[in-house]
C-alpha cells in the first residue's frame, strides 16, 4: 500500500476533492446498481399520482441525460469502462447509432459531469471531455416497469400492490380495499407489462365454497380461465375459475413429493387437480387420488394422462370420508395382505383441505377390526393440513388434530411444520403423524373429547374445546 502511494505521489498530482467525491460515488454505485426510482429524475411525472383511468400519454416526460459520443470503432473498448454507469430502462437501448457515431446514454444520478467518469481510462482510449455532453431524452409509458408505473400512480402513504400470483396467462390479485378504485388501471398496467399475461382477475370473496376454488372478478383482459402452467417442472392444465390451485403451495408440494420414493404408496384424500398425486405417480409411486369436485376430478385425469402416469394412479370422485372408509381401507388392506414378498415401502396419506381436513381424521379410528390387521403392518404416515388462528398457532393445530382424533399424539407425532402465513394471525401447518394399531382398531367413543393425557378435567376440556376452532 505504502509503495503504491509513493509511486502514485511521485508520478501524479493528487486528484482534486470533487474528483475524489465523484470516484467515491462511482465506487459506491459499482457495489449497488442505481435504482431509477431512487430519484425523481427518472421516475414518471408527478402528475400521474392518483390516476384512475390509465392514460399512457400522460407518462411522457423529458430529461437531460449525460452521454458520450464515440466513433463506431471505439465502442467495444469504451463500453466496459462505463458499463455500470449505463442508463438502464425498459425498452431503451443505452447504446445507439447517431450520425455515423455511437451515442452511449449514461445514468444521470451517478454521472453529473465529465469528472464523474473514469476519465484516465477513457482518455487512454482517446475519449475526452469533448465527447461528453448532456441532451434531452423523451421518456414514455414504455420505459417503466409495472412496478415503477404503479408506484408512481398509487397512493403514496398507503401500502402498494405487494404481491400477486401468476397462473399461466392469468394474474391473480387480492386487492386491499384502498386499491379497489384503481383496480382497472392496475389490471391494464399488469397486462401491458407482464410477458404472456392475457387475463387479470381479483379475488372476489373468501374461498368458503366446498370446492375451494377462488371466486374471481375479471378486471382486465379475456375471460379465459383455462390455463397451462408448470409446478416444480410438472405441466398442469385446468380451469382456474372452477378448481383450486394455489402457486404459493408449490414448495409444500415439492417437500412432500421429495420424501416419496418409487414404489411408495400415496393416498391423496383432497387431491385437487393433482399437485401431490401427479408428480408422485410420475415418480412411480402407487397413488390413489380423490377429489369431490367433478371438475377437479376431470382435470386430475387429464393431468395424469398428460404426464403419462396413468399406470400408477387410480382416481376417485367422492367425499373424502367415503374415500377413506372404502377405497383407502380396501386398498391398504390388500397391500398389507400381499406385501410380504414385496420390497419395503412407505405409505403416505395427504389431506390438504386446511379449513376442515382435521374433521375427517376420526374416519381412521376403528377403520379395521383387530383381526383384520396383520401382525406388523407398515403403518401410514398422515400429513394433515390445518389453519389455526390466534397466538400459539402451532400448539392450536396439535390440539385440533388430537381432539378430532380423540387421542393424544406421542411418539407417533413426526412433526408440525409451518407452511405459510395466510392472514394476520392465521397460519397454515402440516401435522405429520403415524397411524397406530390402537388408532386403527379402536373406534372413537366420544366425539370431540380431548385427550386425557393432558391432565385436564372434563370441565377444562370443554373450555379448551371452545378455544380450539377450525377457521
Ligand atoms: C385446498 S384444495 C387442495 C388441492 C390440492 N391437494 C393442493 O394441494 O393444491 C382442497 C381440495 O379438496 C376438495 N374437497 C373439498 N371438500 C371435499 C370433500 N368433502 N371430499 C373430497 N374432496 C373435497 C376441493 O375440491 C379441493 O380440490
From TrEMBL:
Q: Which UniProt keywords are given for this protein, alphabetically ordered? A: Cytoplasm, Methyltransferase, Mitochondrion, Nucleus, S-adenosyl-L-methionine, Transferase, tRNA processing
Q: Which GO terms describe its biological process?
A: mitochondrial tRNA methylation; tRNA N1-guanine methylation
State the source organism's domain of life.
Eukaryota
The question of whether DNA damage is a record keyword is answered with no
Q: Kindly list any coiled-coil regions of this protein.
A: none
Q: Where does S-adenosyl-L-methionine bind?
A: 253, 291-292, 319-320, 352
Subcellular location(s) per record:
Mitochondrion matrix; Nucleus; Cytoplasm
Chief place of localization = mitochondrion
Q: Where is the SAM-dependent methyltransferase TRM5/TYW2-type domain positioned along the sequence?
A: 164-437
Q: What does this protein do?
A: Specifically methylates the N1 position of guanosine-37 in various cytoplasmic and mitochondrial tRNAs. Methylation is not dependent on the nature of the nucleoside 5' of the target nucleoside. This is the first step in the biosynthesis of wybutosine (yW), a modified base adjacent to the anticodon of tRNAs and required for accurate decoding.
PANTHER family the record matches: TRNA (GUANINE(37)-N1)-METHYLTRANSFERASE, TRNA METHYLTRANSFERASE
User: Subunit comment for this entry?
Assistant: Monomer.
Q: What is this protein called?
A: tRNA (guanine(37)-N1)-methyltransferase
